[in-house]
């Protein structure tokens, strides 16, 4: 069994993180998804996440296998939800954004381990509610959310660079513990 754990990213990790993000962008493009196809997330976004101590790494046998941003704060993108509603709209929640696994580690279910570790970390710090969103064409992320216990709650729109408004539509998921 491999040694698998999470840790906060540091600025020197930025090059490796951006390589993983670039690989994820290519996979999304291959799937026909407009998600992450207009320069987002860029180096400045990830560096901001790192400096805010919100960027996490999945480490497998001492190597960076994945990256994600964990934010415990109200997300303005989640204020307006259509075709459903949040189950808990009053308590604090943690949101997992910008998650990507290095394709060299594909098929090992590391995304689920990563999400589980981020949830456990947040739970230990008093958070009981979690949110995540993804484009309707991102079937991998939808499967990861559902297999991690998240429930589809409706549709939101994110504020990211896009060609048209519907490219910013996201399926919204919530987990309440």
TrEMBL record:
Pfam families found in the cross-reference section: Acetyltransf_1 (PF00583)
Transmembrane segments: none
Species: Companilactobacillus futsaii JCM 17355
Top-level taxon of origin: Bacteria
N-acetyltransferase domain sequence ranges: 4-177
InterPro entries xref list: Acyl_CoA_acyltransferase, GNAT_dom
Name of the protein: Acetyltransferase
């Amino acid at each position: 069994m491999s040694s698998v754990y999470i840790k906060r990213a540091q600025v020197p990790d930025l090059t490796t993180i951006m390589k993983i993000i670039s690989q994820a962008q290519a996979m999304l493009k291959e799937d026909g998804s407009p998600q992450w196809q207009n320069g987002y997330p860029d180096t400045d976004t990830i560096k901001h996440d790192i400096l805010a101590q919100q960027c996490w790494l999945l480490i497998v046998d001492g190597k960076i296998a994945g990256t994600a941003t964990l934010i415990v704060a109200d997300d303005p993108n989640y204020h307006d939800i259509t075709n459903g509603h949040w189950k808990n709209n009053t308590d604090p929640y943690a949101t997992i954004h910008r998650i990507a696994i290095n394709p060299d580690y594909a098929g090992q279910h590391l995304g689920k381990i990563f999400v589980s570790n981020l949830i456990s970390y947040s739970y230990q710090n008093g958070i009981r509610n979690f949110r995540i969103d993804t484009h309707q064409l991102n079937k991998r992320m939808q499967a990861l959310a559902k297999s991690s216990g998240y429930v589809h709650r409706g549709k939101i729109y994110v504020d990211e660079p896009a060609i048209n408004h519907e490219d910013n539509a996201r399926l919204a998921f919530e987990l309440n513990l």
